[in-house]
TrEMBL record:
EC numbers on record: 2.5.1.10
Keywords from the named record: Isoprene biosynthesis, Magnesium, Metal-binding, Transferase
Organism encoding this protein: Anoxybacillus flavithermus
Record protein name field: Farnesyl diphosphate synthase
Enzyme category, top tier: transferase
An annotated GO cellular component: cytoplasm
InterPro entries tied to this protein: Isoprenoid_synthase_dom_sf, Polyprenyl_synt, Polyprenyl_synt_CS, Prenyl_diphosphate_synthase
GO MF term list: (2E,6E)-farnesyl diphosphate synthase activity; metal ion binding
Reaction catalysis annotation: isopentenyl diphosphate + (2E)-geranyl diphosphate = (2E,6E)-farnesyl diphosphate + diphosphate
């Protein structure tokens, strides 16, 4: 499993820069886009998409454009998150953040460029039928926009410095992190020609996985290794943010993580697919140290 995921990740890493390098655009914006795309990371979203295709025994090549588009949107969100007006971070994955290297204006534009270009990448894929393409683009826009990631980010900002309920915290995480993770699995299932029942089960699976992913993030902000994470730990406490450990205690957050992972694995089994890779990703999410 590990070897296959590493192989998928290498293919994503090779493919991503080719989209940017072929652009007829100013060199500065291309360099700024590539800088953040090449900064590394888990590539969990494209890997989820390709692993879902694998579960339906489909060639992963049919999902490569959508997988790369997903990573572009995720990367744009990180560039904007790091800006002084948002989280004001100097480091991302152990390297200076985009605005520290290219300046705030170019960092904003690099994020804008990655967001808009992501939809072009999907639209230009000649191997996907028009009907499926429209569905994928529509769902991606919803997952990334005000009803998804952006809405979650706004709710997160509004929750800073306040004590919020567990229900409000889950809303933030289901949208800020969860919607794109959910889309990753749904896109793979749609391209894999899943039945409606399978799509429903996999959507629920991805919902639990998304919450588990964020809970693990909250835990790592307390007991993680800065060298492995690539950024300062304790920033949630410093920014007075409500987190799963702050609302449930550290042990309570760990139990919640375990509960979500148990439910996620159960739903995977109910989908009646070759979910070996997706189960392996569950293990990674639950135990990751960065």
């Amino acid at each position: 499993m590990e070897r296959l995921l590493r192989q998928y990740k290498e293919q994503i890493e090779q493919q991503l820069p080719t989209y940017i390098e072929s652009l007829q655009a100013p060199q500065t914006i291309k360099e700024a886009m590539l800088y953040s795309l090449r900064a590394g990371g888990k590539r969990i979203r494209p890997l989820l998409l390709l692993s879902t295709l694998h579960a339906f025994r489909k060639p992963i090549g049919i999902g490569m454009s959508v997988a790369c588009a997903l990573e572009m949107i995720h990367t744009y969100s990180l560039i904007h998150d790091d800006l002084p007006s948002m989280d004001n971070d100097d480091l991302r994955r152990g390297k200076p953040t985009n605005h520290k290297v290219f300046g705030e204006a170019n960092a904003i534009l690099a994020g804008d460029a990655l967001l808009t270009y992501a939809f072009q990448v999907v639209a230009d894929d000649k191997t996907i039928s028009s009907d499926v393409k429209v569905r994928l683009i529509s769902e991606l826009a919803k997952a990334a926009g005000p009803e998804g990631m952006v809405g979650g980010q706004v709710a997160d900002l509004e929750g800073e410095g306040k004590t919020i309920s567990l229900q409000q915290l889950e809303y933030i995480h289901r949208h800020k992190t969860g919607k794109l993770l959910q889309y990753s699995v749904r896109a793979g299932a749609i391209l894999g020609e899943a039945t409606e029942q399978q799509l429903t089960l996999l959507t629920l699976f991805a919902g639990h996985l998304g919450l588990a992913f964020q809970i693990r993030d909250d835990i790592l902000d307390i007991e993680g290794d800065e060298q492995k994470i690539g950024k300062k730990v304790g920033s949630d406490i410093e920014n007075d943010k409500s987190t799963y450990p702050s609302l449930l205690t550290l042990d309570g957050a760990k139990k919640k993580l375990c509960d979500h992972m148990k439910e996620a694995r159960k739903l995977l089994d109910e989908a009646k697919i070759d979910a070996s890779l997706l189960h392996y990703i569950c293990d990674i999410v639950e135990t990751r140290d960065h």
